[in-house]
Fold:
Amino acid sequence: MLGLPSLTGCAIDKGTALASDFEESWAGTPDVAKIHTTKNNTLPFKGTSTGTLILKDGTSADRVTKLVGELREYVARHDKTTGRITADGITFTVVADEGRTGEILALWRSLTADDRVADADLNDAPWKGATDRWRIEVTAVDATGALAVFKDMYAKGDRHRPLVGVMVLKVRGPGLSVESDFNDGFPAEAIAAYEAVLAQYPVARATLRRDAVSGSAVSIVVAEGVDRDRAGELARNAAPNLGTAVEVTSDSVG
Structure:
């Protein structure tokens, strides 16, 4: 056991060795149903790995918290290994920084208590030298829940405490997908366009997504029989700065 770190350090396929170390270190851990690892052997003697602990159904929040603490210590000692946990349908990355890990654990707790949420992935996503970055994807049970959860996660002091340094927030549910704008901010006009149409007409599905040119893009499909031109006018009036990035079509056949 004492020789493992040095063997990993000099392994030709280091990503493979790191994955093997992770599996050996966590094998037999109580409440861990499965261990999943990935390996990335970038160059001889260089590489990374991601290890995910998939917890048993019904694992208590206190036990999850304890395992998070243990995994945080592990990744702090193994800087080429990313540690993740899946519990109650939500997968999240555990980082070495104690404060950031505390934030992600608090978000895990609030999401698991939210009956509008079906599952989620909370992933550490360093970008252009910024290390404190998160990419968050949530699946909601329906379109109404998707928009409500998205708004909650941007609110201050509401149901979900916002994380510092979110790069991308994406929430989707049947009939709606909404994502932070290209500047990682709240897509106010895109949502306004969607809500303006929804207030007057039934919407079959809609996508409010990132777009590098306009800052946001809106795609709304109204139900068959709806006055598409009027719906388009409502959307564009509510989002005057998006211009042609607002698209309204009909769900009619043909």
The chain has seven helices and eleven strands. Confidence is low (pLDDT under 50) at residues 1-7.
